[in-house]
Amino acid sequence: MPLGVARVARCGDDVSLIAWSAAVELCGRAADVLAAQGISAEVLDLGTLVPLDVEAILAAARRTGQVVVVPEAPLWGGFGAEIGATIQEEAFPFLDGPVRRVAGWDTLYPPGRLEDLCLPTVERVVGAARAAVLE
To answer: Strand runs (DSSP E) across the chain, as ranges?
Structure first.
């Protein structure tokens, strides 16, 4: 992938899952679960955060009208909030609901053996996407 160019890792019409790094694979698994439930989820892989492909993010938000941003970092003060704010500022008229975030828990990063307890899960991503589409 070239720097600063996001890619659509999976096409979908109902909700956009925006992620980077290991969260892209997580969102792909969540999209599989959602598809079995009749919800079509797009997965946008940002690739890089600097430079950031803002146009691809806004295009995803406009396309589906529902967005879930999935960073692995803690929710509070993370880059996912910047992405959500950019979507709210630049694509608000196209949104059918609030930008949702599924992130790591707001805690100190744990030792390796406890890492999975702090990261987003498929179940949490599926829950946020279902809430976005069905509420």
So the answer is: 7-10, 15-19, 41-45, 67-70, 100-101
CATH of the domain at 46: 3.40.50.920
Residue 1 to residues 5, 11, 59, 66: CA-CA distances in angstroms?
7, 18, 19, 25
Mean pLDDT by 10 residues, the chain (135 residues): 93 98 97 98 96 97 98 91 97 96 86 83 96 91
Maximum CA pair distance of the chain? Answer: 43
Q: Based on the structure, what is the number of domains in the chain?
A: 1
User: With a threshold of 0.85, does the pTM exceed it?
Assistant: yes
| 125 falls within a domain | yes
Domain span holding position 12: 7-129
